[in-house]
Amino acid sequence: MRILVPRLRHRSWVLAVLAGFSVVGLLLAGFVAAPVSSAAADSGCRVDYTVNQWSGGYTAAIKVTNLGPAVSSWRLTWTYGGDQQVTSAWNATASQSGKAVTVTDAGWNGALATGGSADFGVQGTYQSANPTPSDFAVNGVSCGGATAPTDPGTPTTTPPTTPPPSSGCGGAVICTGFEDQSGTTPSGAWQFTAPDCQGTGTVTVDTSVAHSGGKSIRVDGKAGYCNHAFVATTADLSSVGPVYIRMWVRHTTALPAGHVAFVSMPDSSQGGKALRIGGQNGALQWNREIDDATLPAQSPTGVAQSAPLPTGSWQCLRFMVDTSNGHLDTWLGDQQVPGLHQDGVPTADIDQQWLSRTTAPRPTGLRLGWESYGGGDDTLWFDDVAVGSAPIGC
To answer: What is the pTM of this model?
Structure first.
């Protein structure tokens, strides 16, 4: 698809991987093998377990559905039949003793009404075998049994809500699929820019890959401390507030351990320095140039509350910047990314660093591209970009 001052180096941690869910059975889908399915009987609960594996490693997208009375929190357990070892989790907390795995909710996703579901993911390693587990139990009750889960406690936080956006652009300030671009060099309402310094990265109009229509913006991002390559809108966003951004992104290389950015917004509250969206430790993150703060914090807890940006397919990314109180939000598709949700309430190892600055952001522009602060090449495409003052759906 699609400043120059020394920056703090962040510690690397293992990324938990975004999970996807369904309401029937168990599905195993390998990167290199044909899908294998296994169904568990439903009673008080149902679990879907979808795995992507490679030599020595795997990620599992897991959905737990409550088929019994409402609960305010949940605990899911299973036993591995191979030599799998969970290394990290997304949207939940995971622990392992021998072959037994215990996963508890993240607080905000603990309350499950009858028929309600929660999704999370785990990442792990294996040496010889990675069979699908089948003895799932929720709150101590087997998902193949006859008794509904019981309620083990009260949730510590309220589940966040997702706004009901319209998929159309409506009165958006920016609404483009880049179909008006002519030639291979961005022109008109979108211009090439290299904030602070320029390297070998390039930006072109691509007619071979597109989310819709026949054109997109392609960025060949290159590694290196000063290798900035962006396409910037000429539209002035200084009067838009709150700022809602919707874009479709496709890229080829997983987000690296080192810090990178692919969205950059000049921010008048930082004297023109950038409010950035990118990744680190394999997960999406916000970054503030003026003090190098990140959201979430680059701790194991913080990274586990973020999500990767899947490669090889178009992904809908949506962002919100509240210019009155500084709140931020992020959605990957229709799923809110909890570690990139900042509501002003401090959460340990997630957003204390970000909340150290109380001035609300005030984006004045939008730049799409690539900047790396050490290592990390990537090729990205951007398409169907919209910016406005109301939620814009995928």
So the answer is: 0.60
